[in-house]
Amino acid sequence: MESIQTLERAVTVHPAGHSSDHSSRLSLTAALALRSSLFSGASSAACKEVVSAAREKKFESEHAIFSQGGSVRQVLLLISGCVKLLQVGANGNEIILRLIGPGELIGIAESHTRTHNSTARVQQPCTALAWEISTFESLFERHTFLRRNMLDMLLHHLEDMHVRFREISTDRVAARLSSQIIRMMHQVGRQVNGEVEISISREELAQLTGTTLFTVSRLLSDWGRQGIVAARREMVSIRNLPALVDLSETAIQLPLK
After folding, report:
1. Which of 36, 136, 163, 183 could be stapled to 103 by a disulfide with Cβ–Cβ 3.0 to 4.6 Å?
2. What is the pLDDT at residue 189?
């Protein structure tokens, strides 16, 4: 694929009421969007057509982008921030299915059913490019790269679900928790003062790893005393990644309890 600089000059997104400063900001948003694997192997002209058909949207923390049972109206490509995908069980409790980070699509897995089977709620303030569902479907039909890359993205999500299911079924809690933190580091981690910060609560970590809040709190406290992580309210900082990786590998090798 051509350089990001070349594509940035080629792509301009024009929402209603745009100004020169606004257009510059949108050009940056477009350039960031093109780093997504969604555009892998695409030509400059194809990228321009697809990105120019979108509009920039911003969402604050805790905003529900869409809700379970609602109609699918748009497809979004996350540029920055973090979104958690939730489902409500029969008992009314919410469970986190996965976290969505920059470069990932939101809403596409349910587009064929026209009804959302989950809720997308903002974990960190987000910027996204949004396509109306009819517009995106038209682009999908015209561009082979969209079909190929979206299939790859969906297969990656399926593989991630298989890994998490295997971990919950066979791995000790320490292995599950350390592996989940490492995955989130790559998905939604932020570099802050030489450490990687992840915006996540203990309750959310317990949901993602299929364990209890007490167990997560105990492990994070133990790892904090060892200087591996620092856990605060709604935040986990990774201070010693090699030690965290060792924890996951060592815990997997120990007998399951």
Report:
1. 36
2. 87
Among residues 76, 55, 59, 42, which one has the least CA distance to residue 12?
55
Closest CA to 121 of 99, 104, 102: 99
Model confidence pLDDT, tens digit, residues 72-125: 999 999 999 999 999 987 787 888 888 999 999 998 766 667 888 899 999 989
Rounded-to-integer distance, Cα 46 and Cα 55, Å: 17
Identify whether the C-beta of residue 86 lies closer than 8 Å to the C-beta of residue 118. yes
Q: Which two tokens stand for residue 227?
A: 């200087």
Question: What is the SS3 assignment for the chain?
Answer: CCCHHHHHHHCCCCCCCCCHHHHHHHHHHHHHHCCCHHHCCCCHHHHHHHHHCCEEEEECCCCEEECCCCECCEEEEEEEEEEEEEEECCCCCEEEEEEECCCCEECHHHCCCCECCCEEEEEEEEEEEEEEHHHHHHHHHHCHHHHHHHHHHHHHHHHHHHHHHHHHHHCCHHHHHHHHHHHHHHHHCEEECCEEEECCCHHHHHHHHCCCHHHHHHHHHHHHHCCCEEEECCEEEECCHHHHHHHHHHHHHCCCC
User: What angle do the packed helices 173-188 and 241-253 form, to 10 degrees?
Assistant: 140
Query: Does residue 111 contact residue 72 with C-beta atoms inside 8 Å?
Result: yes
Lookup: tokens for 13: 């997104």
Strands 195-198, 105-106: pairing kind: unpaired
